């Protein structure tokens, strides 16, 4: 709306300042990962005196980082796959079939998003304990395999698919299974990318789940491993801590820059009635 | 015949129904039942019915109310700060075309960073030996290093500052979506009347993105009252100096997993859920009044 050149410069100035404030902490993270422990402590503002890779090397010696990455990738992938499949099945039943009570189910799913998760911490922990699920990946994957928010997003996307395709297929004698897997799922691919990325990110960044359910060091996921690493030897492993922090943060930011459209899509459109 | 016709639809819906029954309804009743029992996980055979005992303990325990106060103190600062920053950023992004998507992407980066990573960085930046304090000491704006983790009134504002940095991007994107859907002719009409930028923002933009504002406030209340990782990483289970960083979820975690009092912890969870429900309903009533 503002066409005035001077005001445009002011806005760019503001945005550049905001970007610097947002990126400033990441800059320090990367600088610290190349410093030695004593430099991190005693010269917080300085650039690395000599770029040292010791932190990176030492952290692989100190913990089984490959395994921890593997665990996290496994859990996050399983959750993402199940969410894409199950949530779109539910959305299909609600949007694209003539099943009775569709409005009711959708309302129920939407209102379940209003229940605070804190309510379930203790009872679900007790359930897991009774079932012997503590210290298994099941405890992380199964409760996270479907989400009301993902169903809601997929319902919005699925509404945009023209019913004519489905009718044509039904006339040709295709069953609902075929229609779902052969027509709807492929057409839903951009939406599934959005839902998938959001789910994967949340699973990747999850802290509370592993904190409650994972006991063995061999089953740690990244976030919990990082936390344990931070608290185990305070101050004693600074260079390793920063190398690990960088290794966990940078890939995520990198992926985000390539796929930012999908991230943004997951947040726009919500809250609009 | 109806059922036969729709069996695939029912089959497709069944994952949700199962999830709903197993992970929402059943735990809800379990939680309700637990709140009347005295359970210690280590010796479950000693479980006994205590009636309203847990409820009385929790309500009369000053710690619960203190934790609620702490988190509300935190939220007032966080919501104000992040709302202003997010709105300003959205308004600025809406005014430009060149490199708008790059700036939008950069400003969203903290959101995708995990709390664990972000907290470690933040902790370093603001620590007494970190770069910010060193700079402030250097230019004489600070006389002595501030150990904010040992002060009574600093933990919550500091964490609010952290959360505002971390989460304003989500609100910014939601506001941007709202602003994009406003009919442009409204602004053109205002331009003809010679309305100032500020007047257009307050009279057109803000009222038109009210649904987004309500949504953002609701999400903030629901999430904010459940704050855990931020305080858990920085302060022990007691919640720091004078319990000034104790949040309800930290209190619940401490009661359930350190003291092993699952019944009392369930009660805390239920009570907090009720409080969140009341606050969100109240807030939605107030903000949607007159619609």
Automatic annotation (TrEMBL), chain A:
UniProt entry keywords in alphabetical sequence: Cell membrane, Membrane, Transmembrane, Transmembrane helix, Transport
PROSITE patterns: ABC_TM1
Residues covered by the ABC transmembrane type-1 domain: 69-259
Flavoprotein found in the keyword field: no
InterPro entries, A to Z: MetI-like, MetI-like_sf
Topology relative to the membrane: Multi-pass membrane protein
The name this protein goes by in its record: Permease
Highest classification ranks of the organism: Bacteria, Pseudomonadati, Pseudomonadota, Gammaproteobacteria, Oceanospirillales
Automatic annotation (TrEMBL), chain B:
UniProt superkingdom: Bacteria
Source species: Endozoicomonas montiporae
CDD domains referenced in this protein's UniProt entry, alphabetically: TM_PBP2
Keyword Phosphoprotein included in the entry's annotation: no
Family per record: Belongs to the binding-protein-dependent transport system permease family.
Main location: membrane
GO BP term, pick one: transmembrane transport
Membrane topology term: Multi-pass membrane protein
Record-given protein name: Sugar ABC transporter permease
Residues of the ABC transmembrane type-1 domain: 68-283
Protein location: Cell membrane
Assigned GO CC terms: plasma membrane
InterPro entries: MetI-like (IPR000515), MetI-like_sf (IPR035906), UgpAE/MalFG_permease (IPR050809)
Ranges annotated as spanning the membrane: 7-29, 72-93, 105-126, 158-179, 213-233, 265-282
Record-linked Pfam families: BPD_transp_1
Keywords noted in UniProt: Cell membrane, Membrane, Transmembrane, Transmembrane helix, Transport
SUPFAM superfamilies linked: MetI-like
